[in-house]
Structure formats: structure tokens, C-alpha cells
């Protein structure tokens, strides 16, 4: 009778424990103790499977004098072969092993047998595998009973009874064990329901608390809601990224623009973006846009950031932290992406107690010989996101998305109200602004009519345009002959707030290839250009970078014409932010540019008139100097005086740094004549070119005077632009020559030498009038040389005649007659030759 009641008593005790306790662990601990007492076995344990098919002893009752405790120890998945698991699941097989008899019985549950007749005795008992025997022997077990514990048709765990001595297990005891397992399945189901209810209550409480921060307070507490969300997941940090509520762009577009278009809330540990990275926020990287470009905004549960190839560019930002897992929650409302909510979780260090040492990276080929506790430690391990956590993330994401949407709607409504209330004020302001602009334009016209000072006109006008348009900067851009251009720094005016930014006009050459190729582009057709936001104009990237270099966000440009010629541009710039240019602003800018063109035209006419006057004065002075040279040649036969005076006056009149005379030798080498040289006082400390300076020019020697023998001049504005040979440049640099002009000196038909002007201080552009005058002076100097030669020749002839007379046998009267004839010949030769040369240059009279 006791044998009948005892199992019932066991069932009642276990059922009572299940009813009274809400903690599954209490039920399991009580069950193994009661069952071991009933079976009188040495050990009863409950073994629970992990998701990776390994398992752990979570409850145990053991006689420590006979068997060691295994409580808390883990067993690898290989300890239970796959075919055994299938029998446990499909047939709910109970396994009974007797080590002494080397037999194993696999008895299926009768109620699970579809055709009990198909199972014979030999199907229930068979020889046990030697590895299994070796395994149990190493554990100290002679007899083993294993019964599967099922939960929702899944293998939840095993109920195991071990004995250190061999024993028979009657069917009645097996039925009792099965009854206990059935009770445990009920307890597990009950515990699961209770746990789910508790988790649901906790989740709802969390959602409610966060929803209050997002919806029920006067202002949306994004930061506090983010902190609460991170805590709910046990995270180490997180971020909330969304677009700036006042921006009308989509969230995706805002991510690609500057940081002013997005708003980021951060809490706890954060990725460290390198300074040289293209983007400053992790949400701007392309991996997220690629993930959600299809419009399916599912949560991305990333357990290990280093296992996702798409995150390769971001992994460097996480290496400096312990962040290992990310829960990326896209925030969408009605298929519109509004932002990202991300939760970070740190890597963990795991310690697992195993029943005996084994190789976790390979399959266990042989049974373990020892089950002594072996601790496996692993550092930097990721943690998986559970299904429940993903579901919580989905619900919280909806709360955040709705809050962001509501906030954007309220912002838009407030903007509409504000716009409506300020429209009248704006119209009034525009009218007042238009009046001020017309007044300023009238003042510009008045100044143009009363003043010829172009700089004053431009500076004053730029300042007034800057103030009236409330622009950050107003600049003037001038085109070059090749349609490149530069900013004129003297004409620029900027808002005091932007004075720290370098002027656009200081050494700023801005060569726009489009303007060069089209010779002014749209501006040559007198069109304007107004850009409210440079990022909305589809400019080329190089153009954007150039505008960003000067922090230009918006601009308006009008052309400046001088007559029919496009002279330049009048530009208004906005540095602080994009700006909408009103039509009245563009009209005023255009009218002002037109008047500036008129001012430039007047200034050019005035400058042209002054230049003509200067050129006439210069021509008169040159002609006067030329006449002086001719007069000196007529009045004097002193060659040194003529050359010295002429070079000095030539140096002063043409404002050259030095004027020198170069004389050819018979072999067409040559030297500078130091006594004929004149130099500007500023360069008088430089050694004269003519003092012991023999200049052997191989080209002139080989060509017997080169171009100069054909009466050609040589003009060099800049020696470094002429592709001279290095040796030629070395000689020029030796005497600090930057530019020069040279004319040939002919004596009759023979090339005698060169008249040269040099510039030491800087390169110089030689005017055609300068070269013509230099050639005329060289021609007169040649005439002077020819006159001296004729005089010397005549004097030589007269001497020869006198000597001849002395040798003649003539009377005194005959000699006197011959002397008078010789003197008349000498005078006739001298002045007739000279007068002939002057006659050929009668235009110089």
C-alpha cells in the first residue's frame, strides 16, 4: 500500500511546490531532492539546454559521499549526439544504462507510439556504445536514467538519475520519473508565462515612462528619453540623430549636408570619429543609407560590429572603446525616415565552468577521462540581442518617431503663424528698403557727375550697397584680357562681423574656366545671377570647394559694362547662412552696377585724355632732346661731350636706370665704353658696364652683328620670359639687369656699336615711342661718329698736301697758291659731308 501512496505523495509535494512558488528554481531544487529521496539514488540532476545545444546542470541533489557534485557545470553539445536528441524529441525516449551489463534501454513513451506493435524487445534494449560506457565510468556512474523534459514541443532539458552501483530500474519507478517530468513541464510553462507577464509589465512601464518624456511634458525631453532607453537595454551608450526641425529637407539629404542640418543627442560611451574622417557623425556613413534604401525600416540588431563588412569604415571609431554591439533603430513615420536611434552595448568577459577540459573549437572525438571543474575564460565577447529586446526597440522607436513627427508639425505650424504675422512687417520693410535704395542710387549718380575720383566712388558705393542690402560682403571683380580675373581689394567692403575673413580682393586671382571659355558667360548678355544657397545649385564640386574656402553660403552678381565691353562684376556675398535675394535687391544691384560702369567710362575717358597729354609732352621733350643732340653735333666735334650729354639726358627723359654704349671690335666682339655711360643715382653704386667689361657674344661674332646689322632693334620687357640660355642669363643677372632695349649705331653703312637702355629695379614694358626715340638718337650718334671720322680724314689729307708742297721745287708764290687750294678743299669736304648727312635727316630740324 505504501508503494502505491508514495508516488502519489511525491506528485502532491511537487504539485504543491509548483503552486506555492513562482520561482522555477525553487521548484527544480525541491523536485530533485524529493525524487532522489523516492528513488534512493546517488544523484538526481536537471540539465537545461542552451541555444547552442550545450547545457548546464541547474538543479541537483547528490550524495557527496558516493558521487561528486556537478551543479553549475556546463557540458558541450557533443556529449549528446544528434541522433539521441532526435529520439528524445520525436519519441520522447527514456534512456536507461547499466554499465555492468553493457546494456542500454531506449524506451519510448507509450502515448507517443503510433503503432506499439512495431516496437519489439530488441528495439528497447541493445548493447551500449563503448564510448558511452567509458564516459559514465569516468563520471563514476554504474547506472543511469535519462528522461527528456519538453516545453512547447521543444527539448528543454533532461532529468537524470545516477547511481554509483549497478541497479535495475523497474517500470513503476520509470513511470514515477515520467510523472515528475510532466509536472516539471507544467512548472516550466507556468514560469514562462509568469516571466513573460513580468517582462511585459516591465516593458510597458518603460514605454510609458519614456512616452511621458516624449509626449506629456511642455517640451520634448529627448536627452532624458535617450538615457532611459539606454538603461532599459542595459546599454553603455547611445545616440539619437534627426534633422534640424526648422530644415525643410528630408533626413537623408540633411545627413549629406553640413552639421547644421542635423541634430544629435548622445549619452554614455560614444564612437571616436577620427579628425581626418569625411563625416563627423556615424549616422552620415553610407552603410545605413544602403541598409534602408529599399524603404523597409527594420531594426538592425548587430551583435558584433567587427563581423559586418559594411561597417568596415566605422570600425576604427569603435576600436578606442569597448562598444561591441549596436541596436540600430530607424525612426520612420508613414514610410518617411525621420532619424536613427542607436543603442550601444559593451563587450563582456565570459567565464564558463565546464565538467572537464575539452577543446571548444573542435569535435570531441574521445570521451573525457575527468570531469573535474575546468574554467574557460574569454575576453571581449559580444552579446546577442534577444527577440524581446528587438520587440521593445520596435515599440520605443515608434514613440520616438511619433514625437519627432509631432515636433516637426508643431514647428511648421509655428513657422506658418510667424510668417503670417510678419508678412505685413516684411512688406513695410521692403518698401522702406526700396526707398533707401533709390536714394542711395541717386547719391551714386550725383557723385559720378560731380567727382572723377573712381576709387572714392567705388568705395563709397560698395559700402552703401553692403549696408542697404544687409550683405556680409560686397566685392568688385575685374576681368583680364584672357577673361580670367581678380578681385579688386581697394573696392571691397565687408560687415564688421566678417572682418576676420581675408579679403577676397587681396592677391585673389579667381580664374573661372567657364567664364574664360564663354568670354563672360551669362554676364556678357547683361544677365544677373542670384544664388540663395550654393548647395542647391548643382555646382561642380571644385566650384563648391572654392566657395567654401571663403565661407560663401549665398551670393548675387550683376555685370559692370563700360560702354559695350564687359568690364567686371559687382557681387554681394552672404557668409553667415543661405539667403533669399529679393527681386528689389537684384534690381538695385543691377542699377548700381550700371552707374559704376558709367563712372568707369568717364574715368577711362579722363585717363585717356591725360595719357594723350603726357604722351604729347613726352614726344615734345624727345624732339627737343633730339634737336639738342643735332645742335651739339653741328656746334662741336668733341665726341666724348656729345655722347656723355646725350646718354645722360636720354637716361633722365626715358626714366631708365642706365644708358650705355657698346662698341664692336674688328672681330665682332665688343666692349662697353665706360666714358659714354649714364646711370640713375639710385644705381650709381653698381659697377659701370663699360669699365674693363669685354662682352664676347658668340652669336654676334658668328653673325657679324646679328639682327643689328639689319638696323633692327631688340626690346626685352622681362629677361626671364625670353628663353635666354643659362649663360646669357648669368651675365644679365651679374649686372642685375631685369629689362633692356637696344638700337644699333651705324657709321655710314657700317655697324659701329649699340645704344642700350637697362632697367635694374624691375621688369619694364617699353613703349613703342621709347624705342623709336632710342633709334633716332642712335642714328644721330652715328652721324656724329661719321663727322669725326671725316674730319680726321680731311686733316690727314691736308697734312699730306703740306708735306707734298714742302717737297715740291716751286716758287713762294706757287706754294702760297697751293696752300690756299688745300684749305678750301678741307673746308669743302668737311662741311659738304656734314650738310649732306643733315639733309638726309631734315625731318629732325
Description:
- The protein has 845 residues and is α+β, with helices and mostly antiparallel strands.
- The chain contains 20 helices and 27 strands.
- The chain has an eight-stranded antiparallel beta sheet with strand order 3-2-1-8-7-4-5-6. Strands 16, 17, 18, 19, 20 and 21 form a six-stranded antiparallel beta sheet that branches. Strands 22, 23, 24, 25, 26 and 27 form a six-stranded antiparallel beta sheet that branches.
- Helix 16 runs antiparallel to helix 19 (768-807).
Keyphrases for this structure?
disordered C terminus, alpha+beta, elongated, 45% helix, six-stranded antiparallel β-sheet, 20% strand
Mind sketching the topology for me?
Blueprint: H1 2-20, H2 24-39, E1 43-49, E2 55-62, E3 74-75, H3 82-90, E4 94-98, E5 103-107, H4 121-124, E6 125-127, H5 130-139, E7 143-151, E8 154-163, H6 171-216, H7 222-232, E9 237-243, H8 251-256, E10 262-268, H9 286-292, E11 300-302, H10 312-318, E12 323-333, E13 336-346, E14 348-355, E15 373-381, H11 387-450, H12 454-469, E16 473-479, E17 485-487, E18 493-494, H13 513-518, E19 529-531, H14 541-549, E20 554-562, E21 565-574, H15 583-635, H16 639-653, E22 658-664, E23 670-672, E24 678-679, H17 698-703, E25 714-716, H18 726-734, E26 739-747, E27 750-759, H19 768-807, H20 812-840
Antiparallel strand pairs: 1-2, 1-8, 2-3, 4-5, 4-7, 5-6, 7-8, 9-10, 9-13, 11-12, 12-13, 14-15, 16-17, 16-18, 16-21, 19-20, 20-21, 22-23, 22-24, 22-27, 25-26, 26-27
Helix pairs in contact: 1-2, 1-6, 2-6, 6-7, 6-11, 11-12, 11-15, 12-15, 15-16, 15-19, 16-19, 19-20
